[in-house]
């Protein structure tokens, strides 16, 4: 597990790479005439849009291989006729009754809308935190279908879910799900990782809402969280000082740090921290050597995103590199990581529900950097390394 988790962090830090150069072509998000009583609009995300028309919806998702192309999906109510004019769009019948997810991160989207019961398959059953989904797995209601080269497409065809949700990556092969598409099973690439702010990443839950006809619910819940996030950010901005912070670890002679337009850098900024690399351009990560980070790490008051497993300690971190003992944050014990919610099988809820709870993540970071501002807050995702 510990060998896998550093790779997860690297992927996480690479999220949003080069999105600052990509253009976003938005079709009409809400038309003058629509048969849908409830609609939603996109305020933060740059990677997708939703349009509402007469008896159908159009979801457009930016293709991560090209800044100009978009993947389109026509959402039709059961019995509705497919409209003309979208020859390349995949057809999805809504509301979804069954869905297979290639990543446990998609579980958070369904739980946010109280719809995890539609989940019938996962790429892997190993890394699931959700107690309710784990109960479904134990009851035999959720099947493992494999992923990447181990994807069991024949099994998926037999299951025939209403939708397969994948992780949209720039290296994804477009023909990887050809058999499913030929069988009439739509495949939607979720690319929330391209977003550069926490609220933009969270907003991808609105795609799930459109697929489930739960726009009113998502609007109500999103608005509350958005307001709470902004209030917390304003609170942190009122702090008298901004403590210096470093993030991550030196992994295989490379220290990956969030770029200035990476969503984690935005978290640190909104929490009132002084992050040395916060002004760099790009939404991905910086790949630096230890010597480049060392001068700033020496005097940083806080060190965050240090460990992955709940058993990680200051001692186990020091065992990776004895030079960590020189850091001010190591000496003071002000080392924190997002490993407060890790279950017995090693699944970390930060990667599952953290995306749709940015206000809780931000509150954790403010409590760490400015404990006087949120004295009653109990850490949710983060914890101090013993």
Automatic annotation (TrEMBL):
Family matches, as InterPro entries: ABC_Transporter_SBP, ABC_transptr_periplasmic_BD
Domain Fe/B12 periplasmic-binding: 98-373
Pfam families xref list: Peripla_BP_2
Lineage summary: Bacteria, Pseudomonadati, Bacteroidota, Cytophagia, Cytophagales
Species: Dyadobacter linearis
Residue spans crossing the bilayer: none
Protein name: Fe/B12 periplasmic-binding domain-containing protein
């Amino acid at each position: 597990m510990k060998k896998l988790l550093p790779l997860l962090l690297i992927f996480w830090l690479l999220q949003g790479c080069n999105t600052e150069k990509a253009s976003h072509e938005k079709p009409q998000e809400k038309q003058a005439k629509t048969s849908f009583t409830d609609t939603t609009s996109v305020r933060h995300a740059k990677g997708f849009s939703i349009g509402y028309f007469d008896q159908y919806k159009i979801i457009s998702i930016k293709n991560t291989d090209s800044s100009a192309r978009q993947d389109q999906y026509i959402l039709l109510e059961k019995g509705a006729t497919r409209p003309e004019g979208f020859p390349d769009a995949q057809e999805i019948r809504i509301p979804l009754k069954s869905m297979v997810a290639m990543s446990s991160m998609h579980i958070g989207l369904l739980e946010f809308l109280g719809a995890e019961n539609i989940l019938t398959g996962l790429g892997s059953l190993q890394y699931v935190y959700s107690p309710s989904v784990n109960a479904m797995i134990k009851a035999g209601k959720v099947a493992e279908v494999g992923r990447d080269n181990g994807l069991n497409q024949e099994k998926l065809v037999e299951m025939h879910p209403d939708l397969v949700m994948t992780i949209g990556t720039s290296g994804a092969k477009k023909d990887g799900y050809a058999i499913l598409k030929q069988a009439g099973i739509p495949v939607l690439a979720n690319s929330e990782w391209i977003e550069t702010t926490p609220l933009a990443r969270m907003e991808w839950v609105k795609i799930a809402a459109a697929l489930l006809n739960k726009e009113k619910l998502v609007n109500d819940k999103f608005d509350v969280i958005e307001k709470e996030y902004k209030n917390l950010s304003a609170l942190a901005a009122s702090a008298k000082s901004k403590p210096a912070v470093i993030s991550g670890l030196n992994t295989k002679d490379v220290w990956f740090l969030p770029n200035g337009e990476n969503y984690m850098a935005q978290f640190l900024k909104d929490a009132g921290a002084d992050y040395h690399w916060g002004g760099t351009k790009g939404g991905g990560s910086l790949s630096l050597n230890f010597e480049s980070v060392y001068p700033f790490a020496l005097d940083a008051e806080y060190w965050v995103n240090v460990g992955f497993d709940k058993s990680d300690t200051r001692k186990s971190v020091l065992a990776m590199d004895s030079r960590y003992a020189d850091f001010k944050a190591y000496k003071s014990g002000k080392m924190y990581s997002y490993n407060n919610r890790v279950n017995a099988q090693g699944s970390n809820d930060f990667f599952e529900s953290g995306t749709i709870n940015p206000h809780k993540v931000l509150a954790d970071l403010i409590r760490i950097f400015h404990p006087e501002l949120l004295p009653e807050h109990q850490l949710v995702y983060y914890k101090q390394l013993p």
